[in-house]
Amino acid sequence: MKKIEEIAGVPLFIRQKNKTVFNENGRLMAEYAEKILSLQEEMLAAVRYQASHQKSLRIGSIAPGPLLLLEPQLAQIQPSLELMTDLLSDEEDLTGGLEQGRYDWIVTRQPYEHAGWICLPYLTERLSMRIPKQHPLAKKERLTFADLARQNILLLSELGFWTDLVKEQIPTANFLYIDSRHAFSEIASMGTFPTFVSDLFTAKQEAADSVILPLQEDLATARFYLLLKEEQLGKWEGLLRQVRSGRS
Q1: Same-domain status, 113 and 168
Q2: What is each CA distance from 133 to 97, 195, 207, in whole angstroms?
Q3: Long-range contacts of 232-236 (CB under 8 A, 24+ apart)
Q4: Are residues 159 and 102 part of one domain?
Q5: What range defines the domain where residue 201 resides?
Q6: What pLDDT is recorded for position 59?
Q7: Same domain, 130 and 216
Q8: Are the beta carbons of 73 and 122 closer than 8 angstroms?
Q9: 3-state secondary structure (DSSP) of residue 117
């Protein structure tokens, strides 16, 4: 009590033989102390609420498919969430971005055992080809990369790691690059050129004037993983659970 009076710089108590009670200064200080404690509880409640209702999420991905699934899924789960996404072709840039805090989540092709990181299996994507029915390849039941040699193939410019992979596996193909996803969809719907399609969205890419043929190549299948820092798990655990259950 003496220490409190020293801090206040004024007497706070009336000391009697068998008891000590607040004087007017002490009662005023006690009232303010109650207000401060109440504000402290309000502050903690507000901080905890914000932590459980995050306003922004930064995701980097090695391929567009996972992002195209995550964007509408996250918007439905948490409409107020501000989502920022990057599509990269180099996993070192992704893991470096996670380490340096540029990303909250990253989607990679490789599983990582890294101290302080959590790596969760996410989804598998398989490439097929949409072939115009009048095209000679449409008579086949399945295709290989070798079948696509010297073919004119319509290709989105930004496909993450898939871009380099198909260029390496079909070096003699004539790729017709389109930057805009909308323009790509419009041209692809004309059924003039073969295009790559993902099994994640096959139903949306079927057309009456084309056939979808599987690519019988191991490299045409990719397994993806979701990574985040272990220290961030409490922040995102509920959202992650809903995202992954939506893919089960």
Answers
A1: no
A2: 44, 13, 10
A3: 232/104, 233/118, 234/51, 235/51, 235/54, 236/54, 236/57, 236/104, 236/105
A4: no
A5: 124-221
A6: 97
A7: yes
A8: no
A9: strand
Segment 50-64 mean pLDDT = 82
* pLDDT at residue number 5: 72
Tokens of 155: 């290709």
pLDDT class for 194, splitting at 50, 70, 90?
Answer: very high
pLDDT band with cut points at 50, 70 and 90 for residue 205: low
CA 36, CA 28: separation in Å to the nearest integer? 13
Q: Are residues 68 and 113 part of one domain?
A: yes
Q: What is the pLDDT of residues 10-48, one digit of tens each?
A: 887 778 777 778 788 878 888 888 888 888 888 877 666
Regarding whether 21 and 100 lie in a shared domain, the answer is: no
For the chain, the domain total comes to 3
Residue 34: what are its φ and ψ, rounded to 5°?
A: -65, -40
